[in-house]
Amino acid sequence: MSAKEIRPATGKLGILTPGMGAVATTFIAGVELSRRGLGQPIGSLTQMGHIRLGKRTDNNSPMIKDFVPLTEMDDIVFGGWDIFEDNAYDAAVKAGVLPAAQLEGARDFLEGIHPMKAVFDQKYVKKLSGTHVKKGENWMDLAEQLRQDIRDFKEKNNCERLVMVWCASTEIFLEKGEVHQSIEAMEKAMRENSDQIAPSMCYAYAAIMEGVPFANGAPNLTVDYPAMVDLAKREGVPIVGKDFKTGQTLMKTILAPGFKARMIGLSGWFSTNILGNRDGEVLDDPESFKTKEESKLSVLDSILQPELYPTLYKDLYHKVRINYYPPRGDNKEGWDNIDIFGWMGMPMQIKVDFLCRDSILAAPIVLDLALFMDMAHRAGMSGIQEWLSFYFKSPQAAAGLYPEHDLFIQLMKLKNNLRHLKGEDLITHLGTEYYD
Hints:
Layout: E1 12-18, H1 22-35, H2 45-48, H3 64-67, E2 76-82, H4 88-95, H5 100-103, H6 107-110, E3 116-117, H7 139-156, E4 159-166, H8 183-191, H9 199-209, E5 214-216, H10 226-235, E6 238-241, H11 247-261, E7 265-275, H12 278-283, H13 286-304, H14 310-313, E8 317-324, E9 333-341, E10 347-355, H15 358-378, E11 383-384, H16 407-421
Parallel strand pairs: 1-2, 1-4, 2-3, 4-5, 5-6, 6-11, 7-8
Antiparallel strand pairs: 7-9, 9-10
């Protein structure tokens, strides 16, 4: 198998985040603390993961960052947009994710990062309001302002390449409509200020038109429709989404494949969450929660395949609840009651209480997506990057294909894609000794 040509990661990589709240500032602070030797990027596959090459007996498992040409963390610069003017340090302190004493180690760096004015409309995120917001004649005008921001940032920071990762809030639920079916219809809707276009779409449009890979960390529609996919292919830009896989859904994609592997039945899965950060406040609005609910509910059906295993999963009752509870801040708690059944239909129960930190789990995802998307772009890849489904609750897939939700299959696909790019044999776990 021959290796694919991947342009080297020369110069600086700028990572732009629409939204500079808890997730983005935790990510930025963590990278800088790691660069200063004051912390470790735990949870990051690109920084801490290994990949096996060849047979098990070869004992050849280099680190991923040594195997594929990823940008070094020292070569990353940061920027973004937010509806509040706080610099990255002040925003991180308000978010309260990393301890103040730890943030002090990167305070000088964080205070130098100021958000650009955001594209925002409260109609799409009803629980938030901000003053650091762009004004424009229509969505297209606002997208053009974002394009200018991108060009200015690249020049000012002497960046060779850019990547954009959406770290802002969940928008209200939007159905795919006629305006989302073609590039021409989408651009016309942007010029006409259609309410079927949302702020996140302006960011994605601006990124793609500027040749910047775009990853969607929220369950918003954003790039998950034909017009944006076609635009990304036309411009030769990778896109991926949607909704960072953290917390409760991460646990589901770990547990559900195990139940299915052992042919254990499921009669009910009740999930509830309490969280008190900006994300929790936004999701307190029913229309924004609808967007998140669609993302969370799709996971089990895809993994369990009830159409193939009706006896085990056809009648599964799956309920998801999210409750805003300010005292918790970013420390989300997810409760799961799982009703299972086994041999002769005998019922059993599993209870899971996951006291997680949403932004701590999301920060390494932002880093990995930025580095992998940049590499994909340098390798000439464009359109939906399904091999990065590992990082998402509701992964995008090509038209006509169902998304893969099983965490372990997702990881195998990711690593096999890296092997493919470097001309290495794919790992299938089949050995010739079985066929002698």
